[in-house]
From TrEMBL:
PROSITE patterns: RRM (PS50102). The keyword Glycoprotein does not apply. Residues 614-723 are annotated as: Disordered. NCBIfam families: matE. Residues 621-669 have a biased composition (Basic residues). This is RRM domain-containing protein. Residues 466-535, 547-620 form the RRM domain. It is a multi-pass membrane protein. Residues 687-696 have a biased composition (Basic and acidic residues). GO terms for cellular component: membrane. The keyword Transport does not apply. SMART domains: RRM (SM00360).
Amino acid sequence: MQTPSVFHYSNLVSRDVESDSLLEDNKLANARYDTISHSQVESPFNVLSELRAVLKYSIPLVITFLMGVGNRVWDVWFLGNIGSKALAVTSLGHLFTTVAGLSIGSGILSAIDTLVAQAYTGARYPHTIGIIFQRGLIVMFIFAMLVAIVWINAESILVLMGQDPSLASMAQIYIIISIPYMFLCFTNTALRKFLQSIGEMEITMYLIFIQFPLNIASNYFFLVYLNLSFIGAAIHICFMSFLLLLLYILYLTLFTQIIQTYWPGLTKEAFHSWTEFLKLGVPGMLSVSTDWAFEVCALLAGVLGEISLAAQSVVISINNLLLMIPNALSTGMSVRLGHLLGANEPRKAKFCVTLSTCLATTVTILDSLLLYVYRKTIAYHFSTDPEVIEAIVQLLNIACLCHFVTGFGIVLSAALNALGKQFIVASLNLVSYYLIGLPFGLYLTRYHYWGLEVSYYFIMGSSDGNRVYLGNLPVNVSKSEIESVFKNYNPVEVTLKERFGFVEFDNKVDADDAIHDLHGTKVSGSRIVVERALGPRRRENREERSYRVVIKNLPPRTTWQDVKDFMRKAGRVVFADVLKDCDGEGVVEFAQYDDMKYALRELDDKKLNGQRVRLEEASGRRGRSSRSYRRSRSPRRSRSSRRSRSPRRSRSPRRSRSPRHSRSPRRSSRRYDDESVSRSQSSERSNSPRDLKVYDGEEPLDEEPTPVHRDSIDQGEIEERDD
């Protein structure tokens, strides 16, 4: 039986060894090499023997990959508990470095997987393997220097892509600090692939075991003890990559003979045959576009805001963690397949692919089920921000299906890569991800609020339905003005606070119509936001307390999230916002009186973003012995049985949406053709994803200025709404 047509390692070396003297020096090593390499494929051909061979490679890789990505999960966990700002900046920087460098380099180094695995059982001299490895390092170092130039200009690139300028500026700092990490990462990746290809899977596993607890300690030291935020995150990954490289060198030098056996020393042979190496490396780069496409989507999610970016980062981390199992199976299969092809065993090679595919399919089905069942638990462990938690929960509904399809494809891609068919994998990925999937996703995100924003539609669908949120209200707007705007939609109750409010309707249809028609309507010169209010109404007999602090002298570009993260040092923050009408001022409300007092005592005259801020207790606060407060509707807004609708708004119990209620884009501002009733002053509706905000629907506790962005949803309330 003929060996399948594959790209062979011998294309990359003009000579097996450099000289006769080198051949003489390696006779002893060659004898040992032949004994080890050929023993890898000399086994009976049956299911159990092949299963043992695949699992022998895969199990150490499963542990290695899970712990490696587990390190990344711990990174996200620490950042998520510091605050969404640090998580968003680090996520944006990490996504940029992945898309604009790390993914490309990892793909190019995939040539080592194919060439070293085949050379291990097919090459005559072991130094041939070392030459291939050395060539890969030289190519990657030159590539890394070019990538560093791009990273230095990351801020302008991110702003050009539509990222928030302040977020891009901070991400630039993270990216520049991470430049040494790129060189270290490429070196560690090349070492890992080299060791895997010669069947030494356990070495990396041992080193990751050592690194894992040190990674947690490093996170704590840089992010918690030194409180360096995203700068500490960048220093942390550089430090851990250097530590891993040091562990590799020490282990290979002190405990193995691998360097003596395979390393040829610096040789001019490593500077030859680059074209042949890149013929495998460049398609290999494109063949890993599965992960790359996910990172591109996550990078574009940053345009939609910090909440979207933070949620996407968590979901990608969890998805990548679970994908490590099929990744390990595919890598083990790839190594085994390369050994079989190098030893001219095509029949065993075919069976190896079939067996590995069945194993990977079973594992991904189980992973997808676990991802769906425990989606809430995952969300609560990775963020303390209620909006981020809800976005994670809903996004995981989609990720579990995506995980299954991706895991199945990983094994098949690895089989083609092992055969040297990277070009086929690259072509399929380019078509499926970049010509179809990614453009279609961007279209849905931009014009139909889908893409990542589909999670927000799931969230909005969990609300009560007949209550809407009003935002961007003029400072001095009156209740009568708002009632006149909504009068044709049968509002039951209007509740106004300074700069925002809520309107409750008799039914969901009226609320839907009001949102559609009145979002963007001008009221006293300001275009108001009309969105679905999320969450249950506060109980009307609920005792209210307000422990509010005014924060002054805020630095320019300070966001509400910066203020919330700063004030969290004192206790649980209920509300936080930066007042746009008052230059350099913000407002914060605490859940407890003692927390407010602690903030006034300990955080006053402390630095926020490099500038000292002043704190004052807001006037008009209801004290600890506040009276019970109960709102009552005016008689004309009562929902008693005596309330009646005008004839034009009456509906039968089985009312269905008529054509005049349709949401066609060509819908006229006149609701009914037979009546001269205009329902809005303007029905200009925003289609920008930036305008889509999610509100939890909780009302403030008094009439003082209260921010839109807040952290006031209890975990139990989120669970109730999700159910």
